[in-house]
């Protein structure tokens, strides 16, 4: 069973105990989350360990060419730290590259890379999502059998997406997200001496959204604080479990 979006008015331990009851009663075997923030997922996992109950095993999140930050920066770290799986939806980005919606970025002329690989644009997008090692499952939808056959054909394209191919796609999209490999001692600047071991360490992410505005983003989960740094400016915002 999947919990779609968290409720800030409902205590997390109440949600955890409700699913523990369903599991113990044999009504479900596992449970997961959908569209939860990384902070909420990790807090839920910590509560489950404290209470000795079964934690969520997966997160269902949006992931496509134009929505990358959460999956590529945060979910990969959650997978490595606590083993939570990831299912993604909307691999063809709501049809933005298929002419179904107005595309202000006007990327269609640039995305002829699919022809180079001998596939359709939809197949390339699905294969690109599956190629992400953090993702264990990609959810697709089709309006008829022909569309379904086309999307299933994406499996043949995955082997063609070499690291070089992925880099070329990133150059076309110009929106790849980056994370630094070092910790930043922002806690000292905020007046805190230590970070409790049961929470994430203070971690800085170098994020380039593609518009030239380079930012360093940091989540301090034990204070539920989001810190965004741009040259000459440091901003601190309380999250209230709304960060995603």
Describe the model.
The protein has helices spanning 12-24, 38-51, 69-82, 113-117, 121-131, 145-152, 163-173, 186-189, and strands at 2-4, 32-34, 58-62, 85-89, 137-138, 204-207, 215-220, 225-230, 233-238. The chain is of the alpha/beta class. It has two domains: 2-173, NADP-dependent oxidoreductase domain (TIM Barrel); 186-238, no CATH class. A five-stranded parallel β-sheet has the order 1-2-3-4-5, with helices on one face. Strand 7 (215-220) and strand 8 form a beta hairpin. It starts with a strand and ends in a 6-residue tail after the last strand. Mean pLDDT is 75; it is low at 180-244. This is Voltage-gated potassium channel subunit beta-2,Voltage-gated potassium channel subunit beta-3,Voltage-gated potassium channel subunit beta-1. Belongs to the shaker potassium channel beta subunit family.
């Amino acid at each position: 069973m999947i919990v779609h979006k968290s409720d800030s008015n409902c205590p997390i331990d109440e949600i955890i105990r409700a699913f523990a009851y369903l599991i113990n009663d044999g009504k479900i075997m596992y449970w997961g989350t959908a569209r939860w923030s990384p902070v909420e997922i990790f807090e839920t996992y910590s509560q489950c360990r404290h209470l000795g109950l079964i934690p969520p095993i997966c997160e269902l999140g949006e992931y496509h060419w134009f929505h990358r930050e959460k999956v590529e920066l945060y979910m990969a770290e959650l997978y490595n730290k606590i083993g939570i799986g990831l299912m993604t939806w909307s691999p063809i980005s709501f049809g933005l590259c298929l002419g179904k919606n107005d595309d202000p970025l006007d990327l269609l002329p640039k995305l002829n890379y699919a022809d180079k690989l001998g596939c359709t644009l939809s197949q390339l997008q699905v294969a690109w999502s599956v190629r992400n090692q953090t993702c264990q499952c990609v959810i697709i939808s089709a309006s008829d059998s022909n569309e379904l056959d086309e999307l299933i054909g994406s499996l043949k394209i995955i082997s063609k997406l070499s690291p070089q191919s992925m880099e070329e796609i990133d150059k076309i999209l110009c929106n790849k997200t980056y994370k630094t490999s070092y910790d930043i001692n922002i806690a000292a600047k905020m007046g805190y001496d230590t970070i409790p071991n049961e929470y994430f360490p203070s971690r800085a992410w170098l994020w380039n959204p593609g518009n030239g505005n380079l930012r360093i983003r940091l989540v301090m989960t034990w204070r539920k604080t989001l810190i965004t740094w741009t040259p000459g400016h440091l901003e601190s915002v309380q999250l209230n479990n709304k960060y995603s």
